[in-house]
Amino acid sequence: MEIFLDLWNNWTTLEKISGLSCFCIIFILLPIAVKVITKNKPLSIFSTLSLLSTALFTLIGIVALRIVFDLEISHIFLLTPLVLLFVNILNIGTCVGYYSMHSKRKGFNLIELKEEYQKDSIQLTILILLLFLSLSIFLTSTFLVFIIFTGLLSLGIIWFNYALFYWFVLK
Questions:
Q1: Distance (Å, rounded) from C-alpha 73 to C-alpha 42?
Q2: pTM confidence score
Q3: What DSSP character marks residue 106?
Q4: Exposure of 54 in the CB half-sphere (CA atoms within 13 A)
Q5: What tens digit of pLDDT does each residue of 83-136 get?
Q6: What does the alpha-carbon distance between residue 168 and residue 166 come to, in Å, rounded to a whole number?
């Protein structure tokens, strides 16, 4: 808990207010938008659980870095939640976008959505792998740990989302 208190105490009041309001807006508006766009309850539950899992993965990851690997959590790690949130929104957006564009088409079924979502997850995984590997070539020390940590969590989020999608939308 001391990690988060140290980070929180180093922020200015403006950073605290803008950061919290940004996260709250995203965590409230995204599931509502998914519900309004798709009119599908399992997809809105999926998007909500996906956002909550991103927050949980981030917290567990930062605590693990601090406790298990005895790493000093610097300000660069404040970018990790933003990167993970971006990747997660992109991942949810591909699923919801495909569903909203094709759900009214004759012959559309959830198996087709699953296959498309799987393809999109594989493509996003390849993109993130290439991006983070290319960034890690020139870095050392804290920045390298940040890139590896954020990349691994991003990949974990993508495939955890796929599992959530399978459990909540297809069942």
A1: 37
A2: 0.84
A3: T
A4: 29
A5: 999 999 999 999 999 998 988 888 888 888 899 999 999 999 999 999 988 988
A6: 6
